[in-house]
């Protein structure tokens, strides 16, 4: 099975919501809990998993506000969200004074590595309402997701993002400590939300090793932009604000897509992965294992 191909197998200990795992030491799970609980308490933010139908509606409404569906409808029907959580998946929301302002959704998946089949959490959606962006909500809800997965014996979270959107890259690489590898051209096909309509849905894959050194350092706020390159590292430029550029100059935006696709496919094929960003948001790639 190719890495990144997802299955629907849900192991018994995940479906039952068990909180014990010999593979992840209890002290690491506790460390992950504090990484979101302390800042959330300090800022007056409540983050909780959503289980009942009335709460799940909060997440559905946030997803529709962040990615407005064209022609009506909804991104994820609440009944599907309920089915996902009931079968072992993850859905959460962040609240400020009782008002939902951010939400995340993930499914249990499976990939293969050198040790065989490996269970992971596939984080499908995570969004923050416009007035609350750039205030740390995205980092906090992902930190909650990290703790939730670790408490159920899952040590890896995977998700996709558009490499042209530089704010996503900074969140993922600096705030969370992921590595980025694998590039899929037009991964989702045509998308019918107001953000992605008319765009090719090229995506890269973020791989979050939840117990690894990078994730733990990021949780402590110890990661930052890469300011000095090693001899094995290369830089791939990224646009400053692709969303604004798509509105003002669609042709230039498409040129960025073509160039990014060519450069990242070339570097990934050479054995590199994205390990960080520069201080102006360009990607830094390095040979795996160096």
Protein described:
The relative contact order is 0.13. The strands form two sheets. The protein has a seven-stranded mixed beta sheet with strand order 1-2-3-4-5-7-6, sandwiched between helices. The protein has a three-stranded antiparallel beta sheet with strand order 8-10-9. With 290 residues, the chain is an alpha+beta fold. A hairpin with a 2-residue loop joins strand 2 (90-96) and strand 3 (99-113). Residues 1-22 have low confidence and may be disordered. It has one domain: Gcn5-related N-acetyltransferase (GNAT) (Aminopeptidase), CATH 3.40.630.30. It contains nine helices and ten strands. The longest helix is centred in the C-terminal third of the chain and has 20 residues, at 250-269. Helix 2 runs antiparallel to helix 5 (137-151) and helix 3 crosses helix 4 (78-86).
Q: What ranges have pLDDT less than 50 throughout 5 or more consecutive residues?
A: 1-22
Secondary structure tally: strands: 10
Strand order of the largest sheet: 1-2-3-4-5-7-6
Identify the CATH homologous superfamily: Gcn5-related N-acetyltransferase (GNAT)
Structural class based on helices, strands and sheet pairing:
alpha+beta
Under CATH at level 1, the class stands as: Alpha Beta
The average pLDDT score comes to: 88
Q: DSSP strand (E) fraction?
A: 25-35%
Biggest pleated sheet: 7 strands, mixed
Overall radius of gyration? 19 Å
Structural domains: how many:
1
CATH topology grouping: Aminopeptidase
CATH architecture: 3-Layer(aba) Sandwich
Shape by Cα distribution: globular
């Amino acid at each position: 099975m190719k890495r990144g191909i997802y299955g629907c197998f849900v192991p018994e200990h995940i479906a039952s919501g068990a909180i014990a795992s010999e593979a992840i030491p209890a002290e690491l799970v506790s460390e992950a809990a504090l990484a979101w609980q302390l800042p959330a308490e300090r800022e007056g933010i409540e983050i909780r998993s959503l289980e009942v139908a009335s709460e799940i509606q909060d997440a559905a409404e946030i997803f529709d506000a962040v990615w407005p569906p064209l022609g009506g409808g909804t991104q994820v029907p609440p009944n599907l969200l309920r089915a996902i959580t009931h079968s072992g998946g993850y859905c959460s929301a962040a609240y400020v004074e009782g008002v939902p302002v951010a939400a995340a959704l993930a499914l249990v998946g499976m990939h293969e590595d050198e040790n065989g089949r490996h269970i992971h959490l596939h984080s499908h959606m995570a969004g923050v309402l416009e007035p609350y962006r750039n205030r740390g909500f995205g980092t906090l809800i992902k930190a909650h997701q990290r703790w939730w997965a670790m408490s159920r014996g899952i040590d890896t979270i995977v998700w996709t993002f558009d490499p042209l959107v530089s704010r996503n890259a900074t969140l993922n690489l600096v705030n969370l400590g992921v590595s980025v590898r694998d590039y899929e051209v037009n991964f989702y096909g045509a998308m019918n939300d107001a953000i992605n309509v008319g765009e090719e849905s090229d995506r890269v894959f973020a791989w979050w090793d939840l117990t690894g050194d990078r994730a733990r350092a990021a949780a402590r706020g110890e990661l930052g932009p890469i300011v000095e390159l090693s001899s094995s590292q290369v830089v791939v430029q990224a646009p400053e604000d692709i969303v604004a550029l798509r509105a003002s100059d669609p042709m230039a935006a498409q040129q960025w897509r073509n160039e990014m696709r060519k450069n990242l496919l070339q570097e990934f094929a050479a054995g590199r992965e994205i390990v960080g960003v520069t201080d102006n948001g360009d990607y830094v790639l390095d040979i795996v294992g160096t």
